[in-house]
Amino acid sequence: FYELVVIGFVYAIYENEESVRQILHTCSTKTDRSLDDGRCEYYLEVFSQRTTSRRKSIQIIPWFVEDSQWLAETDFPSNGYGSWEQRLNSTECINRTVFIGALHGMVTAYALARICQELFGDVEYAAIDTDRNKYPIGSGRVVFVNAHSYYAAVTANYLMIECDKFCKVIQIDPYLSDSVTCAGANGQWCQNMGQFFCRSLKCMKYYCETCWDLNPNHAITQNGINNSVDGEPPALIHKPLMRNSRTP
Ligand SMILES: [Zn+2]
Ligand SMILES: [Zn+2]
After folding, report:
1. Do residues 200 and 234 make contact, with C-beta atoms less than 8 angstroms apart?
2. Residue 200, Cβ neighbours under 10 Å: how many?
3. What's the 70 CA to ligand 1 centre distance in angstroms?
4. Is 196 exposed, middle or buried (0-12, 13-18, 19+ CB in 10 A)?
5. Could you give the domains of the chain?
6. What is the DSSP letter of 106?
7. How many other β-carbons are positioned within 10 Å of the β-carbon of residue 97?
8. Vertex 98, ends 190 and 216: CA angle to 5°?
9. Cα separation of 16 and 18, whole Å?
10. Ligand 2 centroid, distance to 168 Cα (angstroms)
């Protein structure tokens, strides 16, 4: 007879929010002193089915829906936009927005904003992407107040978050708009949609497939590897990003 030891996690989606409250009530709690947001850790005692004498404590991690978004308390002028959503999708805002990938599931929008603020400068808004059940899917975005912070974050590209709960390398890329026309090539206008964004600090522009290839900086070797100068900083390497290629 085997004793199966499972190390891992499961997701549980309840039909009612009340059930989450009930399970948290049953849990024992441990206040987390490293966080100043008043949150605590929840542990549930479970009994093995075979022998009731075996007790195990499992951690329950609820996701608070309000943790998906964080907005700076300062009142930013809406600048004539009807809603926040409209403002966030404006070109002016997208030019200050970074996409965050490979995010740890326990990072809240507030924590993400604070990390980015400390490293790169003031943050206006942060959001964690969620699935249809409003549970985090491992990506998010941050809107900086200044373009300077945006460029600092994009240049960094990768960030290692080390705390007592986890250690993880997160990825920072420009947040892309899906409705920008191609920047053209060789001084020629182009009316195509710019489906590829060149993340090199020398470009930082949207191109269609044709104009991408026409750009002398985008010469591709036979291996498909960018023909960049050896030893060039990663932020200067011409690398195409696509809006729909973010989520693997
Ligand atoms: Zn084009
Ligand atoms: Zn380029």
Report:
1. no
2. 21
3. 36
4. buried
5. 17-60 (no CATH), 65-174 (3.30.70.330), 196-245 (no CATH)
6. T
7. 22
8. 35
9. 5
10. 29
Q: Which ligand is nearest to the CA of 228?
A: 2
**Ion ligand 2: protein residues whose beta carbon lies under 5 Å:** 198, 200, 203, 217, 238
Residue 216 exposed, middle or buried by CB count within 10 Å (0-12, 13-18, 19+): exposed
Tokens at residue 71, please?
A: 């907005």
Helix residue spans in the chain (DSSP H): 17-26, 84-88, 91-94, 109-120, 147-156, 209-214
What mean pLDDT do residues 87-102 have?
Answer: 92
pLDDT of 177-230, one tens digit each?
Answer: 888 999 999 889 999 999 999 999 999 999 999 999 999 889 864 444 555 556
Spatial separation of the C-alpha atoms in residues 206 and 38, rounded to whole Å: 43
Token code pair at residue 129: 């992407």
DSSP states of 49-84? SS-TT-EEEEEE----GGGGEEE-SS----TT-SSH
For residue 88, which amino acid is it?
L
Closest CA to 91 of 240, 245, 211, 194: 194
10 Å Cβ neighbour count for 48?
A: 11
**E strands, 69-189, where?**
69-71, 97-101, 123-130, 136-144, 158-162, 167-174
Assess: ipTM above 0.85: yes
CA distance 218 to 210: 11
Ligand 2 mean position, distance from CA 233 (Å): 14
Please name the amino acid found at residue 54.
Answer: R
